[in-house]
Write the structure tokens for this entry.
Amino acid sequence: MTLTVGFRLGNDTTTRQVTALVTEAGYLHRAQGLYGKLARLSRPERSPAVNNPIPALQGEHPLARPIADLRRHHAAYTQKGYIRILIPPSVVCLDYDEPRPLTPAVQRELFQAFIGAAPNTPQSLEAAITAFRAALGLRSRPEHITWAPREKALPPRVAAMLRALEDGSALTPARRRPVGWSVSGQGVRLRVGPTGEVLDRAAVIELQAALSAWLHFRKDKERPAPPGDGPVPSRSSVPAPGTAAD
């Protein structure tokens, strides 16, 4: 007997379907093809944590990677238009001897057993995975957790400018130009001289870093920048790499 968790999705536009399932031994199986036609089998993917001597994989449960891949395939195929649920995510115990060599004939037998035994009860993929792990005595991720994306580390130059803003300093170009700017905690201001000047690449990069630092500084702050066109005093400047402030 082998416990499996899987699903079958269809794309009515391309008349194609895909079946994916994970077995308790840590194998991910996929088959896809046209409606009513013999499906094309993908090579079984075994968890790299099974009998793997690599230290980084030691302690990783053999089902962790296949289950993550099952989630990834479900999301990817759904985004590609496979939105018809032909077999809802299901946990099925199959009369199937998993240690057998995974020849194409054996793999087709596995898919036929899953398709024939899978119930038609609607449920989410996460619910099926939770039931699968519970049946094997494994812990599942807590439900109703809000996943927030991890903020990326700021580039060193932006971080330095952000610290200057937090210290109350204003950011100004390292080299004075007819077209200038200043960035402070109160706002962003541009200064245009009588003739004007096109900013070169180095100046644009410097201004971009200053604006990025200012956006991080103003994040979660509700105080709007005061109106007006008067100059903003500059207490200090963060020069561009390789240049010196005037």
